[in-house]
Amino acid sequence: MQKTLPALIISLLLNVGFSSAQGEDDIQTLQGEWTVAAAEQRGRPFDVIVGGVLTITDDRFELLTAAGNAFEGQIRIDASMSPRHLDFLHDDGLLWEAIYVAQPDFFRLNYVEADADTPRPTLFVTTADTPGTVIVMQR
Fold this sequence. Notes:
Layout: H1 4-30, E1 32-41, E2 44-45, E3 53-57, E4 60-64, E5 70-78, E6 84-90, E7 95-103, E8 106-113, E9 133-138
Antiparallel strand pairs: 1-2, 1-3, 1-9, 3-4, 4-5, 5-6, 6-7, 7-8, 8-9
């Protein structure tokens, strides 16, 4: 037991460091302008938001929807989770909780408006009975 405890602590510290580095990598990958290419809500195409533009600069976001609505706030990433977590903390107090996958030219997320009765999504699909909006964005 005495030998395994230090090994466990070192392992946990290494994993935390990796998660932090991965989160920093993801923040860098997400920087810039993303355009909504496809979306799904309640298991059906949600084309009304296609064409919206999300811009991420450092830890801030600006979202201009296809309908012309504008949102601003801060993003928070937890890359240690699987799937990875992304929160959009709006300047007006609204919170969207999401899961995400980010690559240099592809960004997919599933988000919900946070409240006590709506858990963060765990999959990148929706059904008629599940809340959430899956969005695919490209540069």
